[in-house]
Write a structure and sequence with these properties.
Elements: H1 14-27, H2 31-51, H3 57-68, H4 75-83
Helix pairs in contact: 1-2
Length: 91
């Protein structure tokens, strides 16, 4: 079991509090448990959606081909690289 050593406060309207309290009671859990469980589940969905790319097979094949293809020469980028200052480590 994870140690719960963090605390957050939440401001909400009376109507929202009553609705969440009723939902928590119907779900057989506490207000905090209900809010935390749903917030963590939603957070996982959002993070997973931003970490995962799902492509159809044909798009995936084209994506892999693009990754494997040599990059096109970009003259403006080459010029910037030539002008870039080198970094020195300062002790």
């Amino acid at each position: 079991m994870k140690t719960k050593d963090r605390r957050r406060e939440l401001r909400l309207s009376q109507e929202d509090e009553q609705l969440i309290s009723e939902a928590a009671a119907l779900a057989g859990t506490t207000f905090t448990g209900f809010v935390l469980e749903d917030a963590v589940a939603r957070a996982r969905e959002v993070v997973d959606a931003h970490r995962t790319i799902t492509l159809p097979v044909d798009s995936f094949s084209r994506f892999l081909e693009a990754l494997d293809a040599p990059p096109e020469r970009n003259p403006a980028l080459v010029e910037l690289a030539k002008r870039a200052k080198r970094f020195r480590r300062v002790s």
